[in-house]
Write a structure and sequence with these properties.
This protein has 353 residues and is α+β, with helices and mostly antiparallel strands. It has seven helices and 18 strands. Bound molecules: pyridoxal-5'-phosphate.
């Protein structure tokens, strides 16, 4: 989720200024989903007793549309985001938005607002679907009315001059997810509890929090709202390692894309647990040569240094490594519909007439 770039007139701040339209639909137990409505981006009319505000029945997604070299706008893996949002909804006892409805909403909004996306290849249109309980009723049970909203904004994300490595902070005090909990889905309530840890990281001079597992406080899980990757070795024989999903990690679409692209580039993709002390020791020994984070907003962000209590270590040279950069290039290429984009990853949206 995390956007690492700052704002400027040409590089707008993440999630601050929205496009002109939004798409909405309301679900009720009686009628199911109402027809999708494309209208102006505007405030919602909401009861102060809306369940989503009180008991947290709210899930969201984040996906991007990019302008390809031929000028057309394509959305990256929207079917996978639709499927994940349905999983999130089921975990929170909410009616899943059907996949075809999710795609039609994306098509409607992107068609209406694609002129907001300049031809600058460093910019993309970030789409934010949200599903929340809008029934006015404070009973402790799943709501009987839900609202689906899709909004969008233009954002940066990748730059020709390459990504800047970030210093990261391993939190010993806070954890993000517990087995059997909600860490594996994009549940709104997963995010506010991370702010205190993020403040702790900032006070330590770091930019992001490394989450350890909540049982042993030992296994590296994620970085802020991003998945983490480790590179072992170098060159074409390098291993690209990421922790396995197991309910406490968010199954990133970017994570999955990078695992597949790694194999295409001739690296060996692996899902393997890495302990924090192992990360430190393997960096010192030169076995782990690179570490980076991945997510829709941040694309691929290299990790330069790690702080863990009183300890501090550098990953590789402390700069963006060659495997990180190769994977990032391949991902950007895939997102903009370049020749390296695997079949079916980009959904082209025709402009509205
Ligand atoms: C959204 C998210 C990610 C990244 O998922 P993508 O599909 O790659 O954007 C990783 N971790 C957390 C906690 C997230 O919320």
């Amino acid at each position: 989720m995390t956007e690492t770039s700052g704002g400027s007139p040409e590089r707008p701040q993440f999630g601050e200024s929205f496009t002109a339209h939004m798409v909405t639909s309301v679900w009720t137990a009686h009628e199911g989903w109402s027809p999708l409505r494309l209208g102006p981006h505007a405030a919602l009319c909401l009861s102060p007793a809306a369940v989503g505000l009180h008991y947290g029945q709210a899930v969201f997604e984040g996906l991007k549309a990019h302008r390809g070299a031929d000028g057309t706008v394509g959305v990256f893996r929207p079917e996978d985001h639709a499927a994940r949002m349905a999983d999130s909804a089921r975990r929170l006892s909410m009616p899943p938005v059907p996949g075809d409805m999710f795609l039609r909403a994306v098509d409607l909004l992107v068609a209406a607002d694609q002129d907001a996306l300049p031809s600058d290849p460093g910019l993309s249109l970030y789409l934010r679907p949200l599903l929340f309980a809008s029934e006015a009723n404070l009973a402790l049970r799943p709501a009987r009315e839900y609202t689906f909203v899709l909004i969008a904004f233009v954002t940066g994300g990748f730059f020709a001059d390459g990504p800047e490595p970030v210093p990261v902070w391993v939190s010993s005090r806070y954890t993000r997810a517990t087995p059997g909990g909600t860490g594996g889905v994009k549940f709104a309530g997963n995010y506010a509890p991370t702010y205190l840890a993020q403040e702790e990281a900032l006070r330590a001079g770091c930019r992001q929090v490394v989450w350890l597992d909540s049982q042993e406080r030992r296994w590296v899980e994620e970085l802020g709202g991003m998945n983490l990757f480790f590179v072992r070795g170098s060159g074409s024989g390098a291993h690209v390692v990421t922790p396995p999903l197991g309910g406490t990690l968010l199954p990133g679409v970017t994570r999955d894309s990078l695992l597949r692209l790694a194999a295409r580039l001739g690296y060996e993709p692996r899902e393997e647990r890495i302990a924090v002390d192992q990360w430190r020791d393997e960096c010192a020994a030169g076995t782990i040569t690179e570490t980076f984070a991945s997510g829709t907003a941040a694309v691929v962000t290299p990790v330069g240094t790690v702080r863990y209590g009183e300890e501090e270590w550098k990953v590789g040279t402390g700069g963006a490594g060659p495997v990180t950069l190769a994977l990032r290039d391949a991902l950007i290429d895939a997102q903009t519909g370049g020749s390296r984009s695997p079949e079916g990853w980009v959904r082209t949206v025709a402009p509205r007439r």
